[in-house]
Amino acid sequence: MKLVIKRNQFYDVFQNTKVLNSFLLFLKDQNLKFCLIFLRQLVLSFLLFGFLFVCKTPESKGVSSSIETPRYLRLNYDVVYDTSEGVILHETGKLFARGLFYDFTIRSSENQFGRIKASSYTEDNQIDFKHILTVEELNSLQNKQYQYFSMPNDSRASVLTGIHNESCYIRWEWQKESFIFVFETDFKNDSGKNPVLLGKEFHENIRKGLRIF
After folding, report:
1. How far, in Å, CA of 126 to CA of 76, rounded?
2. Do residues 68 and 83 make contact, with C-beta atoms less than 8 angstroms apart?
3. Cα–Cα distance for residue pair 44/59, rounded to 1 Å
4. Phi and psi for 61 in degrees, rounded to 5?
5. Radius of gyration of the chain (CA)
6. Which residues cross the membrane (predicted)?
């Protein structure tokens, strides 16, 4: 009787050991599968990261370094500037809470104004707005002249022209409701034209391109 009990106990131990070994082998297989899956995902992740790194356009301060040539520049919700032939966009971004700015060059062989900065901002930011010239440079402008031109809704645009450091500065400014729109340029006047005439041409180019809704 004792011998039978011992045999049964031995058989139980053997069976338990067999089950345990099977379970360990199962875990080993599962771990191996998990490791292979994890390794595969890791390799794919590295390949994807490498691909994105190679193809990603370099960025600097939120401004794309790729050359953009848009035709339309949205200044706010109901004013758009149609550049007609498109522009080379050097920089763009938000200005204060609700404004925008664009630094661009018109894509035309007839362009005589060089780089232009177009800005839009609201009255409450008027004190903080900075022109492309410093306050000292604006105060030292020579042959300073103001011109005024009619705009929609009985409004008018002002054009300031002046000379500094052998460069011609032109500023076009117009207000629609609470928004103020400014176009500025500072360039070498190789044509020798009178700055007042250049200011008038600058206004005509801007007025022709403005789409007011």
Report:
1. 16
2. no
3. 25
4. 55, 35
5. 35
6. 34-54
User: Hey, what amino acid is at 102?
Assistant: Y
Q: Among positive and negative, which fits the CA dihedral 20, 23, 25, 28? A: negative
Q: Which residues pair with 74 in a beta bridge?
A: 80
Tell me the C-alpha distance between 112 and 95, whole Å.
27
pTM: 0.68
Alpha carbons 205 and 98: distance in angstroms, whole number: 25
pLDDT of residue 62: 39
Element holding 180 (H helix, E strand): strand 179-188
Pick out the chain residues at pLDDT < 50: 2-11, 13-14, 19-20, 23-24, 27, 35-36, 39, 43-44, 46-65
Beta bridge partners of 142: 163
Residues 104 and 90 sit within 8 Å (Cβ to Cβ):
yes
**Of 110, 112, 94, 114, which Cα lies nearest the Cα of 102?**
94
- Look at the block and give the residue holding tokens 């050991």: 17
User: In angstroms, rounded to a whole number, what is the distance separating the alpha carbons of residues 101 and 183?
Assistant: 10
| Residues 176/79, Cβ–Cβ less than 8 Å | yes
- Residue 6: the pLDDT is 45
The tens digit of pLDDT for each residue in 138-187 reads 999 999 999 999 999 899 999 999 999 889 999 999 999 999 999 999 99
Q: What 3-state DSSP class applies to 59?
A: strand
CB distance 168 to 198 below 8 Å: yes
According to DSSP, residue 126 is labeled: T
Residue 105, SS3 per DSSP: strand
